[in-house]
Amino acid sequence: MAEHASHVPGLAHHFVNMEQQREAGTIGMWIFLLTELMFFGGLFLAYAIFRVTYPDGFLQGSHLLSVPLGGLNTVVLIVSSLTMALAVYYSQMGEKKKVVGFLVLTLLLGLVFLVVKYFEYKEKFEHHLFPAMGFYAPDPSHLAVQYHQQVRVFLWIYFAMTGLHALHMIIGAGILLTLIIMAHKGKFTREYNSPVEISGLYWHFVDIVWIFLFPLLYLTGFHVGGGH
Amino acid sequence: MATETLEMTAEKRVTYLNVSHTVKSWLLTLDHKRIGLLYLFAISFFFLIGGIYATLIRLELVTPQGDLMTADTYNRVFTMHGVVMIFFFLIPSIPAVLGNFLLPIMLGAKDVAFPRLNLLSWYVFMVGAGLFMLTMINGGIDTGWTFYPPYSSIYSNSQVTLAGVAIFITGFSSILTGLNFMVTIHTMRAPGLTWFRLPLFVWAHYATSLIQILGTPVIAITVLALALERTFQIGIFDPKLGGDPVLFQHLFWFYSHPAVYIMILPSMGVISEIIANMTRKRVFGYHFVAFSSLAIAVFGFLVWGHHMFTSSQSMYAGFIFSIISYAVAIPSAIKTFNWTATIYKGSVSYDTPMIYALAFLGLFTIGGMTGLFLSALGLDVHLHDTYFVVAHFHYVMVGGALSGYLGGMHFWWPKITGKLYPEVWGRISAVIIFLGFNLTFFPQFVMGYLGMPRRYHAYVPEFQILHVLSSAGASILAIGFIMPIIYFAWSIKYGQPAPNNPWTAVGLEWQTTSPPPPENFNYTPVVETEAYEFEHVEEIKNAGAGEVKRRHKESRKKNASRQSKNCQTS
Question: E-assigned strands of B205-332?
Fold first, then answer.
């Protein structure tokens, strides 16, 4: 029993065949993404409730975010989803060079996103807009005083949601790095490529979360205020 | 003669227990059976801790005055009792111990789908448990296990943040176990083992996994938000800072109500196995019992608002939550009626697991029916936060979930350890637990209805007689719990070696050896029949009562001799 399993590279001993292992990995990742959805879901619920409770504060808060930078990051992530999909495609074709190339490209785009995010966060800290330590005192010349607390609620939601998303991007970058090393060593073949495929599912999920975050956080002001 | 040959062959046979003996081989094991035992040690420890806190509570409540501890200490004691018992004992109990051990064997697989993830889940649990022990040493928490803000986020002077982080981490072990089980059930079934041939234990664990996967991430993000609010003083739940305290209650109960089903569903799976095998009948209405598990999991997500009838939740939301809470009683009732119908005209043997199963039926029915009182909008306002609620959920959690866990431990103990526990002591302790339990918690229904609020260390003298009865019952209950710990430990060294199938039960786990080999089976099992297909079941049904007993004994003897023959040939 154990003997025939050890002949196939990449097949764990407790699976009968490659197909079973692949299926287990794919279902496992989909279920994991379901848990992720519920995890982010708690914050999306908080967003919905506070946006209804504090529409003005959310309008004010949204104006503090940079639409060009957020928009740039949206484009960067959509393109990275394309390069990830191509990496999955070529891994199934067994074209090692192209797999490595597109994985590197995806990783670079992910890093671009994180660098842009870093500058956005830095700017918030410098203007005392981080909702915890050193948050600005109410100042009539800066923002309407009555919205001070509401803007703070908006900003913690902004930092919690984008921070959690950025954490997932960092984990994703680590996964991509591992995949690049594995692909470079020639671990993936036409028969065995499910790590690339299920990592792709993860990467697309993280992208999709951002697709929701961008309009909800950055474009709220546009919508309510009729554009600036 | 037969036992001699068994002993002889048992020494030669490689089992999951004797395949290696180093500490490292246990701590780095990827074998689901060993991981199940690792969990068993961890949760047994926490059961003792939770029990000590319960003892302190019952001691304090013997007299109406707060003479053993201050109000603040009492707050910490009941909170720690709740948190330890729920997050560190009941939620992992059956899935992580019996589920881990049995699920792959019942599916005819060599292991769960992701063995490394399985070991990781134990380590994650231990890290969370370690942090919680740290909380305990630092004085514990005093918020109640419900952690309602703004008390928990701003005012409490106890270790709320640390406890929150501990529960956050422990939650991931629960998620990983659920994910692993779900994938295993989907992909690792033996040839011929179709969905409707699965034992009901597996169906129950599938439903449980669904709740763990969908619910646990929500409590994770909630306690994380609570810890953030407490650390950085930002307005999430605290109304003074612009937060919404009712939002916390919604998020908390969105997980914590389904969590009740994480605790009871696996227990229901155990009861299905015990009742079928101890009455030698296929579970009545197999499909209904299987689907009622899923129905409980799904409905369970839609009833959380019944914990919030007295909050600022809208009246109309209250109506709907009340109606759906009534609806969730339907699948539970389907199960109870079908188990009863299974016992009817069955060939019942009153071994220890069956006594627990019968206790489960009665106690869970009382616990479930009183749950209907509490989902009635008007009556709940009267009973909210009284001992009626305490009695209700202890009937479900202890009378239901814990009875199932203990019944299952007795039922599969011979398979897990390869040793028989002393049956007479098993029966005595089961009866003691049943009696002690009822004496402890039935008076609490009465005092709750009369208006005794929960979470107070001092009370008006009228309630003393009921509290004394309850504390007396608790001491009997404690004796009942200590007994299995002693005789289980005793049986490991001195117990009779167990045959492969001591109950002449059906199911793949009884076809392999006791204890099983490292890869569960020495062959790839093929399943050709439905679950609970008993040989000669028609004959037994048609025979008289005395005849049934005789046949029963005969079939057991036959089975034992068949097994010793198997051993000799192998």
Answer: none
Q: For residue A207, give the CATH number of its domain.
A: 1.20.120.80
Q: How does pLDDT run across B287-346, given as a tens digit for each residue?
A: 999 999 999 999 999 999 999 999 989 999 999 999 999 999 999 999 999 999 999 999
The residue of chain B nearest to residue A43, with distances taken between CA atoms, is B221
Q: Tell how far CA A151 is from the center of its chain.
A: 24
With both helix axes pointing from N to C terminus, report the angle between B32-60 and B115-137 in degrees, rounded to the nearest 10. Answer: 20
Residue A28 C-alpha, separation from nearest chain B C-alpha, in angstroms: 6
Is the model more confident about A5 or about A77?
A77
CB-based contact B280:B346 (threshold 8 Å): yes
Structure tokens at A20: 């079973």
Least confident of B7-11, B49-53, B288-292, B408-412: B7-11
Measured between alpha carbons, how far is B516 from B510 in angstroms, rounded to an integer?
9
Residues of B within 8 A of A156 (CB-CB) are 228, 234-236
Select the residue of B175, B184, B234 nearest A156 (Cβ to Cβ). Answer: B234
Q: What angle do CA B302, B308, B314 make, to 5 degrees?
A: 85
Report how far residue A139's alpha carbon sits from residue A145's, in angstroms, rounded to the nearest whole number. Answer: 6
Q: Distance from A221 to chain B by nearest Cα, in Å?
A: 20
Mean pLDDT, range B506-517, rounded to an integer:
93
* Of B111, B236, B242, Cβ closest to residue A14: B111
Spatial neighbors of B402 by CB under 8 A, at least 6 apart, are B90, B93, B267
Query: Is A153 domain-assigned?
Result: yes
Q: Which pLDDT score, from 0 to 100, does residue B509 have?
A: 94
H-assigned helices in B280-328: 286-300, 315-327
**pLDDT-wise least confident of A82-86, B11-15, B110-114, B476-480:** B11-15
Tokens 């001993």 sit at which residue?
A: A13
Dihedral sign computed on CA atoms, order B62, B68, B71, B75: negative
Tell me the average pLDDT across B446-461: 95
In a domain, A17, yes or no: no
Do residues B175 and B213 make contact, with C-beta atoms less than 8 angstroms apart?
yes
DSSP β-bridge partners for residue B497: B419
Q: How many domains does chain B have?
A: 1
pLDDT confidence tier of residue A138, bands split at 50, 70 and 90: low
Angle between helices A67-93 and A96-126 (to 10 degrees): 160
pLDDT given for residue B559 in this prediction: 53
Which residue segment(s) compose the domain that B102 sits in? Answer: 2-569
Query: Which of B110, B183, B235 lies nearest to residue A152, judging by beta carbons?
Result: B235
The residue segments making up the domain with residue A174 are 44-221
Helices B352-374, B387-394: crossing angle, 10 deg rounding: 150
> How many domains would you assign to chain A?
1
Confidence band, pLDDT 50/70/90 cuts, at residue A3:
very low
Q: Give the burial string for B465-483 (b: 16+ CB within 10 Å, else e).
A: ebbebbbbbbebbbebbeb
How long, in residues, is chain B? 570
Enter the DSSP assignment of B189. Answer: P
Q: Which of B32, B35, B110, B246 would best serve as a mutation to test chain A binding (most A beta carbons within 10 A)?
A: B110
Amino acid of residue B522: N
Q: A-chain residues within 8 Å CB-CB of B235?
A: 149, 152-153, 156
Cis previous bond, B515, omega within 30:
yes
Residue A155 counted as domain residue: yes
Q: What's the rounded mean pLDDT across residues B353-367?
A: 97
